Amino acid sequence: MTTPRLHVAFLLSGIFLIHGCVFAGVSEEVIGPEPSPLRESFNCTDAKLWQVFPYESNSVKLGVDGNNVEFAWLGSTSPENLAGISKYNEFDESRWSRYAKSSQMLEIKRGFNKQIRMKWEITIKEREFGAMVTPIAIQIGKSGNELGRVELQRISLPQQMGPGHIHTVGLNFEPSADAVGIIPALKFTGNAMRCVVKSVVIEPAAIRPKWDSLIRTGARIPEVRYEDDGIRPKPDAAKLTPKEIDDYLAKCPKAKPEIRKVDSDTPRVELYVNGERIAPAIHLSAFAGTGSSRFGDFDDAGLRIAAVSVKAGPKTDTPAASSNVWLGKGKYDFEPAREAIRHVIARAPHSYVMLHLIVDVYNDWGVEHPNDVYTNAKGEKAVASWGRTTRYGGGAPGPNERWVPSDNSRQFREDGAEFLKALGQWLETVPEGKVVIGAYINGGVDGQWLFSADNSLVTPEDQFACFSKGARDNFQQYLKDKYKTNEALARAWGFTVTFDTAEIPAYSVRSKSMPIEYMGVKGESPIMSYNCRDAQGADYNVFLSVSNTQRQIAFCKGLKDGSNGRLLCGQWWPTLPAPYPLSHTDLKSILESPYIDFISRGGLLGAVFHGKLTVDELDLRNLKSGIEPWNVTEFDLPWIAKSQAEYKRHITSHVVRPFAGGGGYHLFDMWGGWFWHPETMQMVNDTVKLYDSVKKGPFIGENYVGVFVDENAANYVQHLGRYYMTNAVQSATESMGTWTFNMIWGRTGLPVRFYLMDDALNPDIIVPKVAIFLNPLTMDLEQAQAIHKRFYNNGRVVTYMQTPGLAAPGDANNPMKITGFDIHEDPRTKNKPLIALGADDALLKGIRPGSMLESWTLEMSYYPNASAVPGKNDKILAKYVETDIPGMLVRREKDHTVVWAGFPGAVTAQFVRNLAIEAGMKPWLETDDELIIGGGILAVGGLNGGPQAVNLPANFKVEKCLSGHKYDIKDGKLMFELGYGDVYGDTAIFAVSQK
Fold this sequence. Notes:
Elements: E1 7-10, E2 15-18, E3 21-24, E4 28-31, E5 40-41, E6 50-53, E7 60-65, E8 68-73, H1 79-82, E9 97-102, E10 106-107, E11 116-127, E12 131-141, E13 146-151, E14 167-173, E15 179-190, E16 193-204, H2 242-251, E17 257-264, E18 267-273, E19 276-278, E20 281-284, H3 295-300, E21 305-311, E22 326-328, E23 331-332, H4 335-347, E24 352-358, H5 365-368, E25 382-385, E26 388-392, E27 402-403, H6 410-429, E28 436-442, H7 469-483, H8 486-493, H9 507-510, E29 514-518, E30 521-525, H10 536-562, E31 568-572, H11 587-592, E32 598-600, E33 613-618, H12 644-660, E34 664-668, H13 678-688, E35 705-709, H14 719-729, H15 731-734, H16 741-745, E36 752-756, E37 770-773, H17 781-791, E38 796-801, H18 814-819, E39 822-826, E40 834-836, E41 865-869, E42 874-880, E43 886-892, E44 896-901, H19 909-918, E45 930-934, E46 937-941, E47 946-951, E48 956-961, E49 967-970, E50 973-978, E51 987-994
């Protein structure tokens, strides 16, 4: 007997034209929790029931659209909003937001786990770049007092969506024990927008829906499933018997994988095994190992690489994963690895195997090497379970626990490399090793080598620091290698110190801000080390990344050496220089290492250019298959597709992007329940076939935007400053619509490539017409002169941001020497957005005067930014709000243009298009829709849907449409229609070639 289907449905309306014909928007059934009988709705039809608070303001105008309340937000820097900000403290981030709340309160009726669920349906009608609205629940106590607010999303709207479409968002949460009622509210921030609230409902949280557990022994608990259509996952049954596996292994040749760089314009690599090209599409199975994995499904769907989890150390985090392989010094039991490989072969006989290795230590290792266990400031040793540190001190690991080795310890580096070499040697000698083509070498925090800081036990003193003797000894050796003499070290640190007395810097050092003063105003900088002075904290930051990277290179070298260079090696390696613990800042060494072949999540900063295969992570939830069992709220988040049609758009856009970008992807079936449904697996099969059309594409040459990132910049700012500096890199990309970085820069309508700053001087790089140096804090004068010589010609546009060179050798005048602009850190700019002037300048075309040039986040209020004194030939493009302080300048020379912006992340899609036009380029797309180009593929992802026109370069020939869209080419324009979507809009995909 089947469980009744749980769903809600609404009609996604929209009218669009295709070759003169009118088509109605397609009805899509939305999958979700069944409404509670106790569900109540707030009034969203009477604008009189809503008011702006805590101060009345004309910056949010209330009205009615049809039968629903409409909110017209004029923007943080609108005259209407500026008229009311005097009520706020000058440095209060709240001054840039306005709230609108209902006067209606509904009673809290608690449900499962004492939680309630609020769900919103919102339509975004008009919005500028940087406009955000966040739904909020205000908790009310018995006396009518406000007890607190809960923001109902992790990411503020608007996400990408078609006009007129309803965006469903919400969250389950447990209200305060004293709360009796809830009032809905909206928080508006950034630039102007209009939105309509269709509905807001409140109900007791439902008991999580569940269905049959997977049949295999060791399977995890049942998944949450929001549509039960009676179809059950079949057991991941063996297709081959043990004897058939033996026969297969006896006959098959040893797999010899190879990654080849096949193109430089645009950069592209391909994966070959025994001389045959295969799609770099990987099934990364559940962390739980073989217990919940679906190897047969993915093999049937056409993926030819299956990755299976194997733990080196004890059976802790993933009970069903093969483990206890590394038993002691020189002691190994590789039988669990053999069993894991054979398990995959039996179910995926058409696939090659990769090992998803979790490299942690055997439990006696911490006893043998107590000085190399991760240690807090109190000297207590770390013990972990489930990928996180769970306690400090208290003795050796117990059941389901393990030691946490210090990532910064040479001992762990050497011992781990020795184990991996032995594993590689074993794989070369056994039949099962013939089908293995490589390994993810992962581990550490969350299995992703994150810095040991993302757990609740970490105090500020321990954050991003290991106080073990092994880590300290390695730090001292790093200092010796860098400074050579004690005298040089003492000069850099600013006090008497030797290599033997240098200690791990205290939290007060790692968190300090440098004092600044300009124009008689004092303040604090996020920078903690100017011009390589007072470098103690910065040196430690760099050491963390360098030691982590050297450990990883040593591990990959070990496996490669053991396999005589045959096996591919790589890892999950977050590469944006964002806040710890989400990044490492020694990607340069990774890209230069001959021992590392691929990087997961590493496609942004020139990895493909350096011949590395990039593997984008696609852990796409599916509401017919299942989502995280502990977090039923995942349904309400904007990036979770709520219909099968939306899911198809989701997976299509996410697959075509890495294929066109010269890399690949893995479908991360984190819990063995995200992809199993037959409809889902058909989509997996349809999208992997796109790789058949990937080939050498038309030349682009210098007609692209090059984005150069200084990965070392974050090392020179203190830990809170890292979140501020993130806006120079991460928010500049994320804020334009969603979290996928290539997708965001793709909305410029131009080809965009990401590189490390050092790549700007690589002789093999094609110098772009537009170069943007996002955060060149460590650019030195020699680099700058070479960049001038190479980039300042042929009408190019070069843009610098913030204070170039301020952390490089030299002095406070480095920014001026590098850019030619008189730049200063300016305390007067703290908590002041940068706004576009009404200047008659081509670089401001299409940008509303007075609008913010950045997507404002809380972190932007932490520190001041930079200003500049304009010279004779400099033109001011933007100033800090309510001041005459210049924050963006342009200087046009005879053969090039130089632009500077003092605010981190002050770029918009339209501004980048204007830079390109200044450099003589013609944008391919003149809307904010997504452009994907490379590998013989041209694709457009629709933010808005409707008619599209791509300005084709003269050398581009359109061969066919791979997505079935009708198209026409006229006067050099590729014209077609895109459909509409909620979050993941329609994607049109074309095969293109050189004329």
